[in-house]
Design goal:
Length: about 280
């Protein structure tokens, strides 16, 4: 983007963005779990500053798994009302030199560590502007080295819902950490991608888009899939119920990515696969 385009985007956000913040929603995503009270501390800080409605996305992200948190955030953010402020904390680098950032888009505000966690969600809205959080006025006075989710991110989110401007909180930057799940690549009759997420049902979700798959095949066909160390021939169907119980299948999931599942079973366990394993779809 040119400087003029960026300035126009900032003006749009300033002129229109705050108008939609009247609904005042702050969401929280983390790898904290619910045992230790960390989530409640973040909510306590936010509710002491703002009357925003507080909503949990999830706190069951695998500890330190930035990619997993980024995938979940990316898939959830578009379904919240325009103007929602999202706090995401999967932060193995807390207390180091890594920055805290605000990412402003045309529809949402994302707040968290500068480790790529926020970026897939930001990219879904195309244009965005990134600010480094620098103004200590909008942090807690007793700033810890190990809990920026409470002391910085929750506090900043609450102040933003109270109409504090982004420029007041920090400076615009271009040197942020990006995270890109990539996409499938097609060469002749083979589409190659990788596993980017495994959900709690054991469904294996790839970075191969549904659109790419539909270019070469339609539902109710059998396809050959090489995933991890496995080669399987499975039906490509609309959803899990189109195969028998415990039968493996391929489909396009709700995030519009190609995925492998088992009807009422775990494909990830059966295939012994993990994130970043290569997936190849071979078409006749």
């Amino acid at each position: 983007m040119t400087d003029n385009e960026v300035n126009s985007l900032i003006k749009l956000i300033v002129d229109q963005g705050y108008k939609v913040l009247l609904m005042k929603i702050i969401t929280f995503l983390s790898d904290f779990g619910l045992k230790d009270g960390y989530v409640a501390q973040m909510k306590g800080v936010a509710s002491g500053i703002s009357d925003a409605r507080l909503v949990d996305i999830t706190h069951e992200i695998t500890p330190h798994n930035i990619s997993e948190g980024a995938f979940v955030l990316r898939n959830v953010v578009p379904y919240f009302p325009r103007g929602t402020v999202h706090v995401a904390v999967v932060d193995p680098g807390v207390g180091t030199e890594r920055k805290g950032i605000i990412v402003t888009t045309r529809k949402h505000v994302l707040i968290g560590p500068d480790n790529g966690l926020l970026m897939p969600a930001a990219h879904t809205f195309a244009d965005f502007v990134v600010y480094e959080i620098t103004n200590k006025k909008y942090m807690l006075s007793s700033l810890s080295n190990t809990f920026h989710g409470r002391d910085i991110f929750a506090s900043v989110a609450a102040h933003i819902t109270n109409d504090v401007s982004f420029e007041e909180i920090g400076r615009r930057i271009n040197d942020f950490v990006d995270l890109d799940f990539g996409g499938g690549e097609r060469k002749e009759n083979i589409v190659t991608g990788k596993i980017i997420y495994i959900d709690r049902f054991g469904n294996v979700i790839t970075n191969i888009s549904g659109d790419m798959v539909f270019e070469v095949i339609c539902f109710n066909k059998k396809i050959k899939v090489l995933v991890g160390k496995n080669t399987v021939e499975i039906p490509f169907v609309r959803s899990y119920g189109f195969v028998k119980k415990r039968e493996m299948l391929a489909t396009i999931g709700s995030s519009n990515f190609f995925e492998i599942g088992i009807n009422q079973g775990s494909a990830a366990k059966k295939l012994s696969v993990k994130e970043d394993d290569i997936v190849k779809i071979v078409f006749d």
